Amino acid sequence: MPTVYALRDVPPEVSAYGMAKYSRSNAALRDTLRELSEEKAANFLNTFYFSYGHASIADLAHVALAIEEVSLLAAMAVVDEPLWDGQERSTRYQNFTQAPYYRPISADSRFDSLCRGLFDFYHELYQTSAAALEERYPRPNHIKPSAYHRTMQARALDIARYALPLATLTSVGQVTSARVLEQQISRLLGSSYPEIQDIARQMKEAATVEAPFTLDNTNAAPVSPTLIKYALRSEYRDNLDTELLAMAGSFFNNSSVGDLASGVELSLGGDPAIDALAMAFYRVISRPFGAIRQTLSSLSGAELEDLIDSVFQSRGPHDEWPRFFRTAPLLFDMTMDVGAFRDFNRHRRLTKVVPDLQPELGFAVPAMLRELNLGIDYEGRLRQHYAAIAHVGLKVGEEAYLLPLAHRRRALFAMDAAEAAYIIELRSRSAGHFSYRELAVSMHHAIAQALPGLAKHIRVTPVEVFDPFER
To answer: Which of helix, strand or coil describes residue 411?
Structure first.
């Protein structure tokens, strides 16, 4: 007969040690755990994880962290981790009118003035949109007033979020394995933003040094004192973009962001080496993925081999292969507003390549705002804000925090057909935000053009199918 039981109140590293013992002992897990101490677990992990390199052991220890009062900008970096599970404060269900914001140490009153201006605009958009939505979609008799007002509030916040600055504070809860956490901390330590570097240091301390929060207020030991104690900034990863940008000058000329206006462009996977290099250059130069891949396809075999050699020449003994080598059959080059990106950024079964924010890409204008005819000069207000950002003389590292969620950004998403179908079916539903609904439908259209035999089995919800009372 099979024997199945759950574990509770077992420290993550002790649990990992016990499960790792399955390969070296025929004892039941509960019997192994009864014999264990945290000291024994640490000794075992030091030997087998660090000395012998059995990295899969760290996948058995799962760590839950609360990462609170961080900017939207920083939260996007935290969430951008494969094999990550978590949640972030929602801009649909929480009103950010009185929300605090992150203020870089170097910031002065000009930063505060621009930030407050966006919050004022956010509040104005919310109030005006809520009134317009209730006028346009009166409450049906079968919906309770409280439920109706919550739904209209959520729809209004979907519009208002376009004005939220990326400095807005949010909170993230996550659960990862110790191995993913170690990689995440290492990546975040390499950020150019001091806030994100500080978050990485605090994540490491919370796991390795500090006593965790417990419901019974016991003074528990740190959750993972051993497995991530060597999480360090990767010099190889930090320098790779700079090296790629230097190499790009030999192959790509007259780069511009002017040809990136399209919402969704699909490329089908081809030569894995060319696809990987195209994904690598996509991060550092302002050109569409398809154009980059076309240029690389014209190179000789020897030139491609030299490029690949250059990518790996500085790789250290503990550095993983760069993420862009995780190629896939479907590669979507997408330009979207940052609010929609935050929703797409949560999907895990894909590989993302995300260039830095580019102020010159401008901002998106939501179709819903035009339809409601709010009488607000949305475009004029944001153009004025962008002009102020460009002319007030902000210090390095401040500008991105003052970009609104309306700001457009690029991202490349590589995935298989099953994940594409999942995203399209989920994100095209009537209850979803109109911004990512349009993207999901565009993804389906792109697949239908290239692979109609697959597209016909994807249960896409057309944009015109819309129930304003559905959440």
So the answer is: strand
Tallying the residues shown for the chain, one arrives at 471
pLDDT digits (tens, 9 = 90+) for 330-371: 999 999 999 999 999 988 889 999 999 988 899 999 888 888
Nearest C-alpha neighbor of 410 from the set 279, 271, 254 = 279
Q: Is 437 exposed, middle or buried (0-12, 13-18, 19+ CB in 10 A)?
A: buried
Distance CA 384, CA 150 (A): 32
Nearest alpha carbon to residue 381 among 170, 160, 92, 168: 160
Strand order in the sheet with 169-177: 62-71, 169-177, 85-88
- Picking from 179, 176, 198, 175, the residue whose alpha carbon sits closest to that of residue 71 is 198
Enter the tokens of residue 51. Answer: 């000395």
What is d(CA 75, CA 169) in angstroms, rounded to the nearest whole number? 9
- Write out the two tokens for 102: 């992150």
Token duo for residue 354:
């995300």
* Long-range contacts of residues 310-317, Cβ cutoff 8 Å, at least 24 apart: 310/243, 310/247, 311/240, 311/243, 311/244, 311/277, 311/280, 314/235, 314/236, 314/239, 314/240, 314/243, 315/236, 316/234, 316/235, 316/236
| pTM for the model | 0.92
The string of pLDDT tens digits covering residues 210-263 is 999 988 888 788 998 888 888 999 999 999 999 999 999 888 875 554 455 568
Q: State the amino acid at position 366 in one-letter form.
A: P
Three-state DSSP class for residue 80: coil
Structure tokens at 64: 């839950």
Tokens 């009062």 belong to 69
Cα angle value 256/259/265 (rounded, 5°): 130
Sketch the domain layout of the chain as residue ranges: 1-60
Residue 326 burial by CB count (10 A; 0-12/13-18/19+): exposed, middle or buried?
A: middle
Q: Name the one residue in this structure whose structure tokens are 């895990």.
A: 348
